[in-house]
Design goal:
The chain is mostly helical. The protein has 16 helices and no strands.
């Protein structure tokens, strides 16, 4: 396959149309059911939205990290990450229902909320509906701007080897990551932590940020295996580059476990009732079993599997691990959001399942469309030479092993 031609992956259109059909049908079912039960609809909708938002925003974090650090690993999945990043306009549109009717989700948005004391007055000022919408508009304006700039310069780089395009991406990525971290920290407070206004955690923002990075990276590893992981298709693929992908996946799993444990440890040490209650609710009525599944499935199993070089150096195994982590992140998002609504038991309503699947179908259809529009291998990427050299080393080692076997 010529790396400088348009992508022509078999079955891509079929997957795209299938995702679109599933997304439209399930979303329509949820909307119709939501007419009779708007409160439950918005709960499931927020859960689905936060998961989809993570796929786009996490990809943006990884793209900017790649521009700053370089490496052959990023060359393998850069196109998939850029396509995920460019779905941010759809994510912005999906936020509109939450902005229009926050009273179905947030206690502070209800006119009947009674406040007292100076702290409550400050909280009331910050959690006003109009200010909530203004902050969300600022967040999305920043994310859309960064997505546009990085995508625009990437498209121009395919047509020109002007080194200034690479420098622009690098210069924007440094401050962009700082601004992204600040914006995500506050949006995590606005959209998730304010579901339970009495709960406070200074590490909640970073804990929410690592989730999108895991989902975006896991999906890109899956798409890489499904669409581009053949040596005949991807001339930049080497065992070292794939091993780096596995090592990064291991790193992100460790970061999630560290941040989740650190927040729990701080709450346990402080032993403040309004903070401890966040965990008390999540350790009873069936939620404790989901917590056990997350500890085991999101940390213990990936930790030991990703220690194995055999797992880290095979795209198929990494893709399987990516699917596993995508499911674990879906459960983690559910665990963060749903107990805030004082549900009597775990997995209360069928919309909790259909809403994220439907929204993911719509998002994936757009993502696959954007992937097909770009070249499989970025042109004039400064890391291309390094990737080719690593591939040459692999072929040389293979040749020596074959000669030794014949000898």
């Amino acid at each position: 396959m010529n790396q400088r031609t348009r992508n022509d992956w078999r079955g891509l259109n079929r997957w795209r149309l299938g995702a679109l059909a599933v997304g439209v049908i399930l979303s329509a079912v949820c909307i119709f059911a939501g007419l009779g039960d708007p409160a439950q609809f918005f709960r499931a909708y927020l859960f689905a939205f936060m998961y989809i938002w993570g796929l786009s925003l996490g990809a943006m974090v990884l793209v900017m990290s790649y521009h700053l650090t370089g490496g052959a690993w990023g060359l393998l999945i850069r196109r998939f990450l850029e396509a995920q990043m460019r779905t941010m306009p759809l994510v912005a549109l999906l936020f509109i229902p939450i902005a229009v009717a926050p009273q179905y989700l947030y206690a502070w948005a209800s006119p009947a909320v009674q406040t007292a004391g100076n702290h409550q007055n400050v909280q009331q000022w910050y959690l006003a509906k109009d200010f909530f919408i203004i902050r969300a508009a600022v967040y999305f304006a920043l994310w859309l701007l960064l997505s546009f700039l990085l995508s625009h310069w990437s498209a121009r780089q395919d047509q020109s080897d002007d080194p200034r395009l690479t420098l622009r991406s690098m210069n924007v990525s440094g401050p962009g990551l700082v601004l992204l971290g600040i914006s995500v920290h506050f949006c995590a407070i606005d959209w998730v932590m304010s579901l339970e206004p009495r709960f406070t955690s200074t590490i909640f923002g970073p804990l929410v940020i690592i989730g999108p990075v895991i989902t975006a990276f896991s999906l890109s590893a899956l798409l890489f295996w499904a669409l581009a992981a053949s040596p005949r298709q991807n001339l930049a693929m080497s065992s070292k580059a794939v091993d780096d992908l596995g090592s990064l996946m291991f790193l992100f799993v460790m970061l999630w476990a560290y941040l989740a444990w650190f927040q729990y440890m701080l709450v346990w040490m402080a032993n403040l009732p309004h903070d401890a209650n966040w965990y008390v609710v999540r350790f009873r009525d069936g939620w404790q079993w989901l917590a056990l599944v997350l500890v085991t499935g999101h940390f213990v199993i990936p930790f030991f599997l990703l220690l194995l070089r055999k797992i880290k150096r095979r795209p198929g195994y990494l893709a399987a691990m990516g699917v596993w982590l995508l499911v674990m992140q879906l459960l983690w998002t559910y665990y963060l959001i749903m107990p805030a609504f004082k549900s009597p038991t775990f997995a209360e309503h069928w919309m909790d399942l259909l809403a994220p699947v439907g929204m993911f179908g719509l998002w994936l259809a757009l993502d696959l469309t954007l992937i097909k529009r770009k070249l499989l291998m970025p042109s004039h990427d400064i890391n291309y030479t390094t990737a080719i050299e690593l591939r040459r080393i692999d072929e040389e080692q293979l040749r020596r092993l074959e000669e030794a076997a014949h000898a």
